Amino acid sequence: MQEKKKDGKYTYFEAGEGTPIIILHGLMGGLSNFGGVAEYFPKQGYKVVIPELPIYTQSILKTNVKAFAKWVKDFITYKGFDRVILLGNSLGGHIALYHTKMYPEKMLGLIITGSSGLYESAMGDSYPRRGDRDYIKKKAQDVFYDPAVATDEIIEEVYAMANDRIKLIKTLTIAKSAIRHNMAKDLPKMHVPTCIIWGRNDHVTPPDVAEEFHRLLPNSTLSWIDKCGHAAMMEHPVEFNRLMHEWLKKLDVAHNLLTEQL
């Protein structure tokens, strides 16, 4: 991935021209988690933008799903985008969902993978205890079907977070916020076209969570990736891109038909 840009209060990666796809990373996830997406879609006529979410930098009062969703809307406005496609993994998926609920007029489409928003018991459980590197290594590996995907670099990142008192407090604040902002009642009213891509072996947000999202979201499609855990775009980038691209082509056709009818 190329260098990140720093623009006023925003830091983000950007590549390509065309319809904007804004990617929202998860709690433990850096921008590099979406390297496969960032590499592929700019060549397909999309502008890929990955902002660094202010997960650990906002005041504790703004450390919640709703405030992050508003931050995303402000970022979209700042970039001058009219309507966007949002892609989110884990907490990023939850923020994308909440943004869709609050600002449907900003949305062309939504893509979620391993998203929170319905099932949060995993959130409480997956927060690392301080200090214990072996425990943290095991937790990081559990996120993936293939534990080798949890590189030393990823383990180190999680370990540093768990040993930073302020980050730990904010992480727990976000976990509580995720439970508080459960979206089960909102989803049936959300008609934005939604693509759900899920790992069949996701232990953090199990497959029945994907089924539930699909059941509750009126305009959704659900695709599975086998031998895949909680971060499909990292474990199976080629298959993830293929499924996402197929859906985007259909979205494009539907959008063009609608425009013609209007």
UniProtKB/TrEMBL annotation:
Residues 20-138, 179-237 form the AB hydrolase-1 domain. GO terms for molecular function: hydrolase activity. Keywords: Hydrolase. InterPro entries: AB_hydrolase_1, AB_hydrolase_fold, AB_hydrolase_sf. It comes from the Bacteria. Pfam families: Abhydrolase_1. This is Alpha/beta hydrolase. It comes from Flavobacterium arundinis.
